[in-house]
Amino acid sequence: MGARQTLKGQQTRAAIVDTAVTIASIEGLEGLTIGRLAAELAMSKSGLFGHFGSKEELQLATVEAARQIFIHEVITPARQAARGLARLWALCDAWLSYMEREVFPGGCFFMAASAEFDNRPGPIRDQVAAQMQEWLDYLTKNVQHAQSLVQLSGSPEPAQLAFELHALVLGANWAMQLYNDRQTPARARRAILARLHGLATPQAVPLPALEDYG
Amino acid sequence: MGARQTLKGQQTRAAIVDTAVTIASIEGLEGLTIGRLAAELAMSKSGLFGHFGSKEELQLATVEAARQIFIHEVITPARQAARGLARLWALCDAWLSYMEREVFPGGCFFMAASAEFDNRPGPIRDQVAAQMQEWLDYLTKNVQHAQSLVQLSGSPEPAQLAFELHALVLGANWAMQLYNDRQTPARARRAILARLHGLATPQAVPLPALEDYG
DNA sequence: CCTACCGATCGGTAGG
DNA sequence: CCTACCGATCGGTAGG
Question: What is the nearest nucleotide to B11, using C1' and CA?
Answer without folding.
Answer: C1
